[in-house]
Amino acid sequence: MRAQSYRTWVVGVVVITCWYVLAPTTASAGGNPCTSDADCLDPSRPVCVNGFCQPLEEQCQSDADCLDPLLPVCDTTSGLCIAMQATPTATATATPTATATLVPDGGSCSNASECESGFCDGGTCAEVTSPAPAISGTGLYFAAATLVLVGSIATIRRRRRT
Q1: Residue 44: predicted pLDDT
Q2: Hey, which of 12, 53, 60, 140 has its CA 20 to 30 A from 4?
Q3: In whole angstroms, how far apart are CA 120 and each of 127, 128, 143?
Q4: 14 CB contacts (<8 Å, ≥6 apart)?
Q5: CA distances (Å), 57 to each of 15, 44, 45, 113, 151, in order?
């Protein structure tokens, strides 16, 4: 009876360990890893920000809903506040049209919405990098094989004692 419960415990440890290795890292980052908005299939998190799918922060229906001075225009198709785009006019104007532009990587910023990359790190716009995978496919097989081996050795040693 003891050997049976020990085997059950070993199998449980292997299953839980494999689950932690295989589970996506969504809890700590707040979303599934992504490289573009196309990778974000969850409708509640449709936007890729800093390598993770995130919910839409500001949804708008008109320009009045856009309170950020850097994103003053409402794009009604996406529901997002966007930067003002210069539009060509048929006639020459005496005053230039103001265009809100995003800060390129390396420029100074105070929040992420000011940067082209959408990532403000310590007051400087920085390039968004994809997170490194926790373990490669080959490493995963070796980790699983090691867990099975350790569990098997423990089970064999336990049988010999009884």
Answers
A1: 74
A2: 140
A3: 9, 9, 36
A4: 144, 147, 148, 151
A5: 37, 11, 10, 11, 47
CB-side neighbour CA atoms (13 Å) of 150: 12
Long-range contacts of 72-78 (CB under 8 A, 24+ apart): 72/100
pTM: 0.24
Would you state the pLDDT for residue 26? 40
How do residues 108-141 score in pLDDT, each as one tens digit?
Answer: 888 888 888 888 888 888 887 777 777 888 888 8
- Strand 80-82 and strand 52-54: pairing? unpaired
- Residue matched to tokens 């059950």: 8
d(CA 67, CA 97): 20
H or E stretch covering 124: strand 124-125
pLDDT tens per residue across span 36-85: 888 888 877 777 766 777 776 657 778 887 777 777 888 777 777 777 76
